[in-house]
Amino acid sequence: MRHLVTDPKYGFLKELGLVSENPGLFDGRWGGSGKIIESISPATGKVIAKVREATPQEASNAVTEARKAWPQWASLPAPTRGEIVRQIGVELRKYLKPLGRLVSLEMGKILPEGIGEVQEFVDICDYAVGLSRMLPGSIFPSERKNHVLLEKWNPLGVIGVISAFNFPIAVYGWNAAIAMVCGNTIVWKGALSTPLVSIATTKIIAGVLERNGIPGSVASMVTGGAEVGQILVNDKRIPLVSFTGSTAVGKQVTLKVQERFGRSLLELGGNNALIVAQDADLEMAIRAAVFSCVGTAGQRCTTTRRLILHSTIKKEFLGRLITAYKSILERIGDPLDDGTLYGPLHSEQAVNEYMRAIQEAKDSGGIIEFGGKRIDRPGFYVEPTIISNLSPKANIVQQETFAPIVYILEANSLEEAIALNNGVEQGLSSSLFTNNIGNVFQWIGPHGSDCGIVNVNIGTSGAEIGGAFGGEKATGGGRESGSDAWKHYMRRATVTINYGNELPLAQGIKFE
């Protein structure tokens, strides 16, 4: 069977070093002797190329190689590590468009989003370069004469990164760039359904490391399913596992890591709400809601799942939102085509989950205001969907469905809207549209949103790398990127130095 990688239309795949069958293991050398899997284009259902997985033993060996490379990498001055990360950013810029096209082809998001995702990795490399010259420590005065107290930060060692299909390169970038300048090596397991992005990205990074005389195993990569993931989760040589995925799996990951006294950095589900107050700029709120609800076909962790509308503007807002959704249907197409605004779901499984959620909403009394059907064309396309007439306590409203489905809820006050926003298990992203400064400070204060991301007059999606990304409650509590994310990848030591010739004890204790 002919693969898309051999089609001249997809020449960028060869530019990225991809072939019909690709090795799914990199531990300084390319390999893999596990089963062969196929990477499928969500837009067409056709095979892009094949990948040979790593076995669990090969994944364990990759940890060994990353551990071997760690002393050399950690011994480099932090600014030197930063220079190498800078070069990675430069190389990613060089491949910005072809790598972005691969993200769109394999994940299914539209091309501007695919390129934007690669740009995120570039941006976090730039951020990490600056960080490499500013990694802090602290000096404190001691109560004892001729003593000084220091706080010293050192790298952890080997970091395990398990990322998800919806952001197949950016989430790895958030972790990798900062972890590397902090002096750690990495073993990365990307999503099993986006292996080509993992391979192409690793090829780019490996080239930079090789040119600098650094072992490639500093940035190792393994392809595989749950068995391979469990190797990273259970291995005591990995002091930190960064996991992005569902709340259910994240709970299992953190329990396993805690059993061995390791650390976990979790970015899990989000049941995000966008509140529109009665004084809001409705035009701005509509534009934000459309992107937040249907961008990436509803497959962002920060996608708006619930629209909480003030009762006085609900009817008008819903009517205008439906009109906007109709225009989206005119822009459905192949993610790689210019002008496409709305692409497919990632897999047949995702389509099935979408259809299940639609049926459950109907069974619970929901009214389909727009959409609700699979689109009759090749690939995994569904209609963006708006559902009303459901209780905020309905089981389907309380769940996160990874699809372009939004539930319309009503509130008569900001206090009621905040209670609805906070009335779910997850706490990732939230947004309020208002022109009342009092509402703003109520929203961002201690009695406002309980989420990790609390926005005003922008949607729930579209975070920048300068702010900490993550959430509370069942979202996991982890933070990637942002001002102090580097602390996740380092261990802190309190150091007391006596530079005198006496040995006084703290608290004035006499032991004579």
UniProtKB/TrEMBL annotation:
GO molecular function, one term: aldehyde dehydrogenase (NAD+) activity
Subunit text: Homotetramer.
EC top class named in words: oxidoreductase
Residue ranges occupied by any Aldehyde dehydrogenase domain in the UniProt entry: 35-495
Active site: 267
Keyword NAD among UniProt keywords: yes
Keyword annotations of the record: NAD, Oxidoreductase
EC number: 1.2.1.3
Transmembrane spans: none
Record-linked Gene3D superfamilies: Aldehyde Dehydrogenase, Chain A, domain 1 (3.40.605.10), Aldehyde Dehydrogenase, Chain A, domain 2 (3.40.309.10)
Protein name: aldehyde dehydrogenase (NAD(+))
SUPFAM superfamilies in the record: ALDH-like (SSF53720)
Family the UniProt entry places it in: Belongs to the aldehyde dehydrogenase family.
